[in-house]
Structures
1.
Amino acid sequence: MTTIAGADPGTVGPYLATALGQDRWRSVDVELIAAGMSNLTYVVTPAGGSADDAVILRRPPTGAVLATAHDMVREHRVITALGGTPVPVPRTLHLCTDTTVLGAPFYVMERVVGVHVVDQLPPGYADEPAQRREIADGLVDVLGDLHAVDPAAVGLADFGRPEGFLQRQVRRWTTQWEATRDTDRPELDALAARLAGTVPETRRTGITHGDYRLDNCLLDPQVRGRIRAVLDWEMSTLGDPLTDLGMLFVYWPQAGEATASVPGVSTLPGFPTRSELAARYASRTGADLEALPWYVAFAWFKFAAIVAGIVARSAAGAMAGKDISGYAERIGPCVERGRAALDDGAL
């Protein structure tokens, strides 16, 4: 039996057999499918079983500190709470907080079969412009559905502190930038100061995903425009919903523009512009988007701080095996996009 770092089959199998009350899990195959830069995702399949029998196991990176490990409890809690709402999430099966099992808390959920889109569409999927519009519409509509959920009604009234949320977010990411700055970047410091001095009044509060974008969703293989599942809830909390919309825009490049974020399929014909996404969101939710440029500027600042942190950790030798070539060059354009949002209202 192959040893898998962070989820040894010899441990996972017997544990799941007991936790799920099914002896077929006693011997399992484990495959790491998402190592990323945050939490780890594994497919666990009972020996002799098929892909239809598999489940998903999520845990923090090996060696993670307790604060990061606690994300598993939060992820499990929010996904479980949203299970009865219009927001599509996997069904949770088990939460383990006993760190003696795998060295950190972890949870198990059903495996949702869907299309995962990162920087290109699979051949034959959404080849027509109208079908691509349907994908974007579905993405926005699910975000609106999430923000319409009453936290108290699903047991999440204490899931975060909405009061002062935006101020804390600006402070948090400014502190993050200052702690990991790769070099002197006065323009990034200036953007942080401007954001801190112009925090808008929060008009709505609700459950925020924290990293909502197309590649954190699974699309229906047969019905284009239907989101099968929203994944990666490790940054979710209670706060200002427009922070989700602002971050979505960072990951939504438009045709004909140079982008400072990751490549995206949204440059293909049929995908709407960011302004069109905003209009659909406003129609879906009734939200006042007058202050949206501030949220977009904040999202670009947050993204720049994240990238700067990756660059700094790489320089310190903490990102071995991960290709971050070109990351440092992204920071300046991110700052410029943030400035343009504040100065010109650019989305």
2.
Amino acid sequence: MKKLFITLLGLIFIVSASYRADAEVTKTPVVFHFTTVGDCRGDPSLAGATEQDLLWVQNTKVMTRMIREMQVAKPQALFFNGDMIYGYSSNKEKMDRYYAYWRGMMSNLIESGTYVVPIPGNHEVQIKIKNAEGKEKKTAVVENENIWRSNMGDLILDLDKWKSITHQDATAWNVENKPKIGTDGITTDQRQLSYSFDVGKSHFTMINTDPVGFDSSAPVKWLEADFKAAKKRGAKKFFIFGHKMAFTYVPEKLKGTKESKEGGFDVRPEVRDAFWNLVETYQAVYFTGHQHTYHAEQPRKNQGGKAWQVIVGGGGSPFSIPKESIDKESDRMFSWADVLIYENGKVSIRIFGFDEVFGPTRVVEEWEI
């Protein structure tokens, strides 16, 4: 059951210790522990940016705090759901500088025992261009996919480093296990952009939601084959990580306004529906970002669906929802998900967050699946 917690917690390690104690109380061991978040890039147009801020375009203050608190909680892995850099450029020198800064921050987490798994976002793979009408359009380009690989390839996937950090084997990993050109709207090599692996009886799949020529989509046919093969190997739990959401979150106050425009797979309803059919079939959990907020829902609950979409795009980018339009406080909180997978197959999801004035970290919501 999903529960809302309103008690403020001053120290994250108290929360984390309690969280770990859950397994001890039930005598059910935790077999894997991970966190996930996305969207820590800054915005060069914001007032007050220093010359140095414009070099890195990163919300250092927010990510530093999150990293510090994750170091106390000690997850075995962090799945980072894209928009870790400002990007929107094919200038390799500039992009390398952005990536270097982000990796410098993440190195502290890696060195203290958490493997960082990167997933591309639109800021990594897209550029801004003008269309025939002179309007700005964002589109993925192959140059940026190549720059992504050159900066992130060593993390996708270093099996020896993964084992030494997580003390678990990552199995069924193959760099050639990727969407094929000619299917799912794919026109370019997707190595290390969409990929997957197993950890015990859990299957983890990372997807590029903005492939060149088919932005705002999911590789459904590849996912279907990937999940089928994983289930045959014995996988019981399925987790998907991607940047763009399948269903855009719109607070009640924004419904019907120009601010309620769809920004995920909604723009391709046939892809969204096929993707979610698959998610429901395997009772997967889809962790995503793109919207700079926190929101968890079962999109087809009214039709008997049980699968979850969890938007955790609160890594430090400017909030997506105006103050006057929020439905709940967590609409404008810097937040991340902390997930425990138990030996008996249960999964606990706990959302941690702090507000925009950097008050105490609190447990925002918690539920079990």
3.
Amino acid sequence: MEPGAGLGVDPARLRDVLLVEAVEALDQDGGLIGPAEREDADRRARAVLDGAAGPEEGAPLRFVEERARVLREGLVRARPELARLLRWAAAPSPPSAAVFLLAVLAGLGADRLEGSQRLNLLSFSLLTILAWNLVGYPVRALASLARRAGWLRPRPWGRLALWLAGAERLWAPRRRAGGDLGVAIHGRFLAGWGRHAAPVAGARLRAAVDLAAAGLALGVLGGVYLRGLVHEYRAGWESTFLDAEAVHALLGVLLAPGALLSGRAVPGPEALAAMQGAGAGAPAAEWIHLFAASCVALAIAPRLALAGWSALRARRLEADLDLDTASYPLLARALAGERGGGLRVDLSSYSYGLSVAAEEGLRNLAAQLFGGRAAQGAVRGVAYGDPPGAGEGERRVLVFNAAQCPEREVHGTFVAELVAATEPGADLLVVVDESTFARRAGIAAPERVAGRRRAWSEVLGERRVEAVFCDLEEEGSLPLEGARAALWTAAEGEA
């Protein structure tokens, strides 16, 4: 597996990894995870990795997971609030069965038919439920199309779910108990988990909303029919502004699904006119059946189907959770030490003697790029004008000095000969070290460095090779992503 590539990971183990990453990134003094604990975790994870049988591409994932598991065990013993944080992140949404049951109970008690035995067709709570669903589905479809077209930001449900589940005010006292470090760890973990879990949390929230809508409609219907068993309801309506024609048009739209499903036509304006007024009315059974059929067609069956689809999507997204180690430099560094077994890296510098600090930076860059287990020989110096010679490894790293002006006939020719001599499948990385040049440039360093970079890029680009520019002596500034982008691999027939 390539360094920095995504690793499919179990959600619980991903939470462990992200928690440990947050602690290691912020615990600069080693108060929570000391060097001894890190070394012990590396050793135990390496033992599991060495003893496991499986494909090589699964090794980085197993190492990261096991290392995080070992460190997490020590962390939660020392800081119980971190264990609570992990438990919260594991369940950011309520159980579906509980959501549905509560919605049904709420629906049973929501509609009391205005406390009388008269069914007002214009104030019946099912009218609102029908209108909500009739308008909601097109809006939902249009919003989905707009997100696909890039007109709306993606995953609003995911952001809302994580915000609702965050309970920041409830967590604040516990985080304050850990001081500023506890607050920072809490925030970094939530940010990392949110980036990975937002799609899952959003799908779960949508499933919960759809279940609640279906349960509410079912509860209201159940309440109506239960009370209808012991009471005789009569249907009627009153309105200051609407006449029978307008009421018929309104009910004709809202009850059309029920009319199609049950085969019952919506009574006409004449029948509605006879039902207008406080003292007027007709038996309500026919209207209740129409409302029930419409609710099944609009608010219950589609919502249950959407909830099931969202639940399945949440499971699929959870199964496809991915950890991109390139986004977490500390994880990439830990993984680098476990890669590269059996590889050889040839290091050379052209007309340039590396300082001790620069050589250490070069070796660190090669270890992070090719793996800490890759064998690195001595840095081979190449004199000005000499040919590249035969390399001794499958990976070759060549260092130029940015203080030298690039020459097509010298540096360009050397790179061309090196490319021609590289075996198919082998990698070549060209590094232009700016450690001495930046200091010599003085106050005009940015402009001069930029100009020198353009010169080197032009000469090397003619040979179809890119370079990574960096200060090898400056600790923590090694451009790993830039090195990956500049890495050149010889193809068949390249020579």
4.
Amino acid sequence: MSFISLIIVFTLFWWLAFFSLLPLGLKKENNPLKGHDRGAPSNHDLSMKSLITTVIAFILSAFVYWIAENNWISLWT
């Protein structure tokens, strides 16, 4: 597996995990200020979600790399 392929696989896993984690742990603002959206989260915690996403994407990418390098499946013929 080439380095570019590994970067692409990591990026795909990162975005998939990020969009899967976005709705977790969100709480709506009970009394929003005037002009604010009632559905907007009070604390989105994107830094923690980004860190968790990076760890998940790294583990999944390492697994795909291991499978490809051991020739269990052939990604390219």
